[in-house]
């Protein structure tokens, strides 16, 4: 049986090309050994074995790898040793104990018995074989070393155990350090305590990682996956389970392209083909109608939809984060409900609360490694999704300052104390932030003194306890309170108006977009829109760059100057791409760039009370019927805005030229 399995192993390695790679590795190792004064005690080889392919080739050998991996490892160890000796590949190899074979398992059969549910993890119920499990990495230690192999020998010169390669300890999957290195190993021949040849000890790097079940955070259904062997250690009455990862696969979250557009959205899209703006505006009008009536908080709803479609961006660039949105309004209860509704729409979202840490926390590792553990905060756990911060004005000033630094760099800096470093040098790690950040604040929580307010002539809207520099880090800042009426009264008037309009209309006139689109339809539509990767057209790029250059020059030199963030160019491009996806376009059209500029200019105007394009902020719409709002008047307004923008660019950005499209 043993010989039959070894023959099958050799044939499989030959068929898969692993045998040829093994020969090449041995030749490389032999050259290295020939230049060394002292030969190595252990030679490590990595063999990639596909269990599914192996089962099809030899079911017995495949079953051994899947269910008895330690026994299978010894079979492969024997095969590698015999191959080296038969072909005389490495003269320094004298014993099979010198061969350390690691079987790399890229995948497991797609069957329930090979999946390990972290919620049902039990030391008594888990077999010592390969399992596949999914989880969210919530913390990890710094890189630490473990003993991969060590050589022992008996101190009695006449004992068989004194020979060089009789006692070689090899690390096995999931085993603790005490399994490999210990001062009380005894000689099997004479009973003496073995002595270690420290010069032959081989070290390797590892991390201890904590994983959470995806169900622990609502919406986080995609996460890293891995194959590993559970190992149980019983030491001094304590029982611990450890799983050493054999193969780690990072699941890049990609919306399924096979999802079809809902019928209701498809009909709406077909009906709005006559206008390049109408479809996206219709979605915003209908969005979250159960939280606020159609028309109320319209610009905030449109901004949230843009942020949602940019959450799963396929952009691999360093600026591939999301669109950050901050809502400013006195009705914080409704703002909280609206943003909470958006978290339910999002496929992945972390709702940050005060009992959690926002960035990252460094603590002492509890597994006896002597190093530190880096616990991920809400921003890191939101990777590829969104993070809802709640009321930003309630955060402490030092937290706001740290948040500003994180959003400016798109990264969290983690400082590891000197006591956890072997070199004694303070180490810092940069962990990238790839999520959309949502927040709201009440502008009335912090009133400025009259002297400061009089000196700040062009600041028409307050930010409450949030600094202006932190607000500049958000892609879109949406002001919900009108300049002539308070936010509470205005939103309430819209609600009353919507109820009265519905009561007076006939039954056939009550059909509007908000009743046609359900929450599930919106979710399904977002999955389709997120799959799109629109390309920026030259005309759209020209408008965005022209507006950016003109605004920087005009606002900085004019008597009515106001700050214009340097990150505006990146924000304008991201909003234009998001609007193209929201409109189900495969390219960023001129109209997408116009809407991006319009929204950004409206946000700047709301903050500083001055628009270089004559825009009047309108956070809400009073129209009870969407047909009135989405008529030809909207396109005419955007055409007029387009002409104003072109005049602005021709006056203040004459040096810009339109890039010709590539053939």
TrEMBL record:
Residues 521-603 form the MCM AAA-lid domain. One of its GO terms (molecular function) is single-stranded DNA helicase activity. Residues 5-107 form the MCMDC2 N-terminal domain. Keywords: ATP-binding, DNA damage, DNA repair, DNA-binding, Meiosis, Nucleotide-binding, Phosphoprotein. One of its GO terms (biological process) is double-strand break repair via break-induced replication. Residues 297-446 form the MCM C-terminal AAA(+) ATPase domain. Belongs to the MCM family. This is Minichromosome maintenance domain-containing protein 2. It comes from Branchiostoma lanceolatum (Common lancelet).
């Amino acid at each position: 049986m043993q010989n039959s399995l070894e023959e099958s192993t050799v044939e499989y390695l030959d068929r898969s090309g692993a045998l040829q790679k093994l020969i090449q590795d041995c030749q490389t190792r032999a050259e290295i050994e020939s230049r060394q004064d002292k030969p190595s005690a252990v030679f490590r080889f990595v063999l990639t074995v596909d269990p599914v392919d192996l089962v099809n080739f030899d079911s017995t050998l495949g079953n051994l790898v899947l269910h008895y991996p330690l026994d299978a490892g010894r079979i492969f160890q024997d095969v590698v040793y015999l191959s080296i000796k038969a072909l005389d590949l490495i003269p320094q190899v004298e014993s099979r104990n010198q061969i350390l074979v690691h079987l790399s398992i890229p995948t497991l059969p797609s069957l329930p018995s090979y999946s390990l549910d972290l919620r049902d993890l039990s030391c008594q119920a888990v077999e010592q074989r390969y399992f596949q499990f999914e989880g969210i990495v919530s913390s990890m230690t710094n890189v630490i070393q473990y003993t991969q192999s060590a050589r022992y020998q008996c101190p009695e010169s006449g004992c068989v155990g004194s020979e060089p390669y009789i006692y070689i300890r090899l690390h096995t999957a999931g085993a603790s350090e005490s399994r490999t290195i210990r001062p009380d190993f005894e000689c099997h021949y004479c009973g003496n305590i073995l002595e270690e040849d420290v010069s032959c000890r081989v070290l390797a790097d590892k991390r201890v990682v904590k994983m959470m079940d995806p169900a622990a955070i609502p919406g986080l259904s995609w996460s890293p996956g891995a194959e590993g062997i559970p190992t149980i250690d019983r030491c001094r009455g304590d029982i611990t389970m450890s799983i050493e990862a054999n193969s780690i696969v990072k699941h890049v979250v990609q919306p399924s392209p096979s999802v079809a557009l809902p019928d209701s959205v498809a009909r709406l899209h077909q009906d709005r083909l006559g206008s390049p703006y109408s479809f996206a505006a219709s979605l915003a009008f209908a969005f979250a109608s159960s939280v606020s009536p159609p028309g109320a908080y319209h610009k905030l709803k449109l901004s949230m939809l843009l942020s949602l479609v940019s959450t799963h961006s396929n952009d691999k660039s360093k600026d591939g984060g999301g669109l950050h949105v901050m809502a400013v309004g006195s009705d914080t209860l409704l703002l909280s409900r609206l943003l909470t509704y958006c978290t339910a729409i999002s496929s992945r979202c972390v709702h940050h609360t005060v009992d959690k840490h926002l960035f990252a926390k460094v603590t002492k590792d509890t597994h006896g490694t002597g190093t530190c553990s880096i616990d991920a905060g809400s921003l890191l756990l939101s990777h590829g999704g969104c993070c809802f911060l709640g009321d930003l004005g309630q955060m402490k000033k030092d937290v706001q300052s740290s948040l500003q630094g994180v959003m400016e760099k798109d990264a969290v800096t983690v400082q590891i104390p000197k006591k956890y470093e072997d070199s004694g040098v303070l180490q810092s790690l940069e962990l990238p932030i790839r999520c959309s950040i949502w927040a709201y604040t009440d502008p009335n929580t912090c009133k400025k003194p009259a002297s400061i307010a009089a000196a700040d002539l062009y600041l028409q809207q307050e930010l409450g306890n949030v600094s202006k520099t932190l607000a500049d880090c958000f892609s879109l800042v949406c002001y919900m309170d009108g300049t002539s009426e308070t936010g509470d009264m205005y939103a309430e008037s819209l609600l009353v108006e919507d109820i009265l309009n519905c009561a007076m209309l006939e039954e056939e006139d009550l059909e509007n977009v908000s009743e046609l689109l359900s929450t599930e339809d919106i979710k399904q539509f977002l999955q389709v829109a997120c799959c799109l990767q629109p390309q920026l057209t030259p005309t759209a790029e020209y408008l965005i760059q022209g507006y950016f250059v003109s605004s920087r020059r005009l606002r900085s030199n004019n008597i009515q100057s106001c700050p214009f963030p340097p990150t505006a160019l990146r924000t304008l491009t991201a909003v234009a791409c998001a609007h193209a996806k929201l409109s189900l376009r495969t390219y960023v059209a001129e109209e997408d760039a116009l809407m991006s500029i319009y929204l950004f200019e409206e946000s700047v105007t709301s903050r500083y009370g001055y628009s270089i394009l004559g825009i009047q902020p309108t956070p809400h719409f009073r129209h009870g019927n969407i047909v009135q709002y989405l008529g030809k008047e909207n396109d005419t307004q955007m055409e007029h805005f387009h002409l104003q923008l072109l005049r602005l660019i021709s006056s203040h950005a004459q040096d810009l030229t339109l890039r010709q499209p590539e053939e």
